[in-house]
Amino acid sequence: MYSEPVSTLVPAAQPASDPAIRIEGLSKYFSVYHSPLERLRHIISPARTKGFDNFRALNNINLSVERGETCAIVGQNGSGKSTLLQILCGTLRATEGTIEVNGRIAALLELGAGFNTDFTGRENVYMNGAVLGLTRAQIDERFADIEAFAEIGDFMDQPVKTYSSGMYVRLAFSVAIHVDPQILIVDEALAVGDSRFQAKCLNRIKAMKATGVTILFVSHDVGAVRSLCDNALWLDKGNVRMLGDAFSVTAQYNQFLFEADEGAAAAPAPLSPPVDGESAAPQVPADIEDAQQAMRLHRPINHWGSHVGSILDAGIFNSHGERASVYTDGEPLTVRIRFQPPVNANRSTMSAAFSMKDLRGTDLIVSTTWDQNPSGFDAHADTLVAEFRLPNHLNAGDYLLAVALEDRSGVQPQYYEYIEGAHYFSSLTRTRQYGTFLAEVAQTIRAD
Ligand SMILES: Nc1ncnc2c1ncn2[C@@H]1O[C@H](COP(=O)(O)OP(=O)(O)OP(=O)(O)O)[C@@H](O)[C@H]1O
User: Fold this and answer.
1) CATH number of the domain enclosing 362
2) Phi/psi at 421 (nearest 5 deg)?
3) Could you tell me the distance, in angstroms and rounded to a whole number, from the CA of residue 209 to the centre of ligand 1?
4) Structural domain for 339, as ranges
């Protein structure tokens, strides 16, 4: 049984230099009653009730989100993400601490928040718009755009309780983005829509980010977090586990999830032996600052697996066999991974893999031995070498190499070892071009 305190949060009128969101010492306790009767007793006589526990859902959270910043909140189920967002939106009251919100908030929280399900979509658009501060005339003006973005057709005039969860989210998202919010809060809700709608929403969120809207984004999709967010807050059992740039936080969070799955200790995995005569690298620091920092130190930003140490060395080599830090466009590259399959591991389901990523961690080129040979490795030698040859078609910029030794027997690869940042490198191009890749494009211009 839950108690549900509700309060409203009044956005403070502050000078533009103040952060969009400032949270200091925020804690939230829920009263969890031993029985419905105890809950009733508490309502009648709060001072005398003993049959409940105080459950701490958030513990001393400090967070500052600058105007225009996009901040992700990641964490396992029950870590406190939704509670934090609800406090920011004013639908829950904090037990301790201060919260300052500077700007108009539009929130797309999990299903159930926002709409009155007995009313039609149209009625809800007007009610929701009004709650978010728009006049009737302003909503009239935007209604056609809201309707077009939501793509729910005739259902606009049906009660919301007849909607599928996807239709509900489409309409809720459409309203949220059309009220000119200065702060947009997006909870897991997007995951409900189909992939085309999700992509459309993400595009719209990116466009809003470009116009300076502050965004708080809760998602389990590390790719979306990395491509969208500047920073990330990792909540663990109501505590801040890590706060920093989105790439580093999601890297550490991924490692944590992997170790939780494996039941392994939470300590960072030791690095593999030195690569090509480099001095032995120290352990990955728990508070690693960001990808650039890791790049400067030539250290993996993320390194874990059930058999760390299986990968003996890995890198990208040019046609002279050198592990360079700069490659030019079109230059032939060899990605080489030297590894020792773990003793007793099944080689017939084993795969070596690499990914060239940008510094936000987005996979740009991925290839695995399993793609071409889904029967693992025949060779019985202790040490094996996988080589992948490809021309460099990456546009000018900084990149990193991730390598892995995987078990592909299940639906999802299981990692014997995963190293994100086995090699950092840059690509140089002769001409300036747009885009991520330098594809060979044949073209003609002719009179029609
Ligand atoms: N009204 C409530 N009364 C008592 N406990 C609550 C209440 N709401 C949430 N909790 C508890 O607080 C903790 C944090 O919940 P919250 O929903 O914020 O987590 P979350 O990180 O959003 O999880 P998920 O990813 O599953 O949505 C959970 O243990 C949850 O059971």
Assistant:
1) 2.70.50.60
2) 105, 40
3) 28
4) 288-428
Whether 305 is covered by a domain: the verdict is: yes
Predicted structure pTM score: 0.67
Is the CA virtual torsion 109, 177, 154, 131 positive or negative?
Answer: positive
Please give the tally of structural domains in the chain: 1
Distance of CA 9 to the CA centre of its chain: 27
Residue 54 CB less than 6 A away from ligand 1: no
Q: Is 437 in the pocket of ligand 1 (CB under 6 A)?
A: no
C-beta 58 within 6 A of ligand 1 = no
Q: Is residue 202 part of a domain?
A: no
Q: How far, in Å, CA of 114 to CA of 105, rounded?
A: 13
Strands (E), 105-209: 105-108, 183-186
pLDDT by residue, tens only, the chain of 448 residues? 333 332 333 334 445 578 999 999 999 998 776 667 766 776 777 666 666 667 899 999 999 999 999 999 999 988 999 899 989 988 889 999 999 999 888 887 754 457 888 999 999 999 988 887 889 999 999 999 999 999 899 999 999 999 988 888 889 888 888 888 899 998 876 666 666 777 788 888 888 999 999 999 998 878 788 888 999 999 999 999 999 988 888 888 877 877 776 554 333 333 233 333 333 332 333 333 455 455 555 677 788 889 989 999 999 999 999 998 889 899 999 999 999 999 989 999 999 999 999 877 788 999 999 998 898 898 889 999 999 999 999 998 888 999 999 999 988 889 999 998 899 888 888 877 888 999 888 999 999 8
Does residue 330 fall inside a structural domain?
yes
